[in-house]
Amino acid sequence: MYAVIRTGGKQYLVSPGEQLKIETTAHQDGAVEFSDVLAVSSEEGKFESDLTGAKVTGSVVGEGRGDKILVFKLKRKKQYKKMQGHRQNFVEIKINEIVVNGKSFKA
Q1: Among 45, 50, 91, 107, which is most buried by a count of CB atoms within 10 Å?
Q2: For the segment 57-99, what is each residue's pLDDT rounded down to a tens digit?
Q3: CA neighbours closer than 13 Å in the CB half-sphere of residue 17
Q4: pTM score, whole prediction
């Protein structure tokens, strides 16, 4: 059982019991709900045709910041150099349940 969800401008393939790191999103009391479900499959190669009311719920495991990415800009022969670092915030979540068409799939 797996689903494809969209959050933070990216798409993720998730299944119940799986942990993943996503961009920081709003969550209440450690619970996260994704209603932007693109596809759901209960068995290999077969997809649900009707996705009305489909949602994926999860719980927040932790928050943090990713590895540092260095951004270096250089204009040769002009004595211009600029170094900048960036660390992206993330939320680590555990997928608890996938609900579609009244059927619930849990970890």
Answers
A1: 91
A2: 999 999 999 999 999 999 999 999 999 999 999 999 999 999 9
A3: 4
A4: 0.82
Phi and psi torsions of 94, nearest 5°: -115, 125
Q: Residue type for 100, please?
A: V
Q: How far apart are CA 95 and CA 18, in angstroms?
A: 6
16-40 core/surface letters (b: 16 or more CB in 10 A; e: else): beeeeebeeeeeeeeebebeebeeb
Q: Give the count of domains, the chain.
A: 1
Nearest to 97 by CA among 87, 86, 106, 89: 106
Domain span holding position 77: 2-106
